[in-house]
Amino acid sequence: MIGKNYRLSDFLTWASAIVMIVALYLVFVYAPTERTMGDMQRIFYFHVSSAWVGFFAFFVTLIASLAYLWKGTRRWDIVALSSVEVGVTFMTMAIISGSLWAKVAWNVWWTWDPRLTTSTILWLIYVSYLMLRNAIDEEARRGRFAAVHGIVGFVSVPITFMAIRWWRTIHPVIIDSQGFSLATPMLITMLFCIGAFTLLYFTLLVHRVRLEQLADMVRWLNGQMVRWSDGRKRY
Amino acid sequence: MGNLVYLFAAYAVFWALTFAFVFNIARRQKGLQREIESLKRALETRQERACSQTSEVLI
């Protein structure tokens, strides 16, 4: 099983590396320069893809958390935790790249626009998920509390996504009721970047899950050592 | 040219965070694998020692 995992993670790692190089080529060579913003608009491709991976990662956490509460198996808890860690990393990228873009487009590093505000709340909710996990020692209790947090916290994802449609905002709307408001080469680049980032997400998730499995194995072996020592003392 | 600094910064942040995440996982995985190997060796040694002691007692 572990051998299979290693082969899968190796394949995903190489595939992600190749796909990310192609994504960079599309962003900097294939995609045309936007008329108003110029080359700065090229932030958009990785900014949108990072935010997408953040949302998707939290959706995976929702599913894994529900599965954990239903089945109670440690594997789902590991997937939920790993997905939050990857999701928080990508949401951090989306927020920082958005701030850099805002500096050029709006001449401010930050503004309390509905999208920016809801994104920050979303990020804080999942950072608090990680803090909650660190605060509880007992494994089953930690898993249950985190699963409930993962389920309730997901409410903030659709709110963040819909914020630019529900409230007045200065954040651009790319997907509206008429579809994508982008030129075809830009749309192709964006969709490819989203696909590349999704693959990168799965790669990081597989590696992070394996790390947690190794940590579990260490705990199990330590338990065996303690049990062995206790048994010998009694003998 | 001035604005390109922000573009560079955005992509630098992206790659820095990605590599930090990957290297952190790789470092922790290596550490855990070493720990697993040493724990397995320690368990085997204890088992072997216990087996030899038991056979000595039986003899």
What attributes does this structure have?
heterodimer, A: 235 residues, mainly alpha, Four Helix Bundle (Hemerythrin (Met), subunit A), two-stranded antiparallel ribbon, 2 strands, globular, B: 59 residues, 1 helix
Structure commentary:
The complex is a heterodimer of chains A (235) and B (59). Chain A has helices at residues 2-30, 43-71, 74-105, 114-135, 139-153, 156-166, 184-234; strands at 175-176, 179-180. Chain A has a two-stranded antiparallel ribbon. Chain A is mainly alpha-helical and 235 residues long. The relative contact order of chain B is 0.06. Chain B has 59 residues and is an all-alpha fold. Chain B is 93% helix and 0% strand. Chain B has one helix and no strands. Chain B has one domain (1-59). Classes of the chains: A mainly alpha (235), B mainly alpha (59). Chains A and B meet through helix 2, helix 3 and helix 7 of A and helix 1 of B.
In terms of quaternary structure, the protein is heterodimer
Instruction: Give the helices and strands of chain B as they follow along the chain.
Output: H
Chains forming the largest contact: A-B, 35 and 28 residues
Total number of helices of chain B: 1
Counted beta strands of chain A = 2
End-to-end C-alpha gap of chain A: 36 Å
The CATH topology of chain A is: Four Helix Bundle (Hemerythrin (Met), subunit A)
Low-confidence stretches of chain A: none
Spans where pLDDT lies below 50 across 5 or more residues of chain B: none
Query: Could you give a short account of the major beta sheet of chain A?
Result: 2 strands, antiparallel
Name the average pLDDT of chain B. 87
Query: Which of globular, elongated, flat, extended, rod-shaped describes the shape of chain A?
Result: globular
Q: What number of structural domains do the residues of chain B give?
A: 1
Strand and helix map with partners:
The complex is a heterodimer of chains A (235) and B (59).
Chain A: H1 2-30, H2 43-71, H3 74-105, H4 114-135, H5 139-153, H6 156-166, E1 175-176, E2 179-180, H7 184-234
Antiparallel strand pairs in A: 1-2
Helix pairs in contact in A: 1-7, 2-3, 2-5, 2-7, 3-4, 3-5, 3-7, 4-5, 4-6
Chain B: H1 4-58
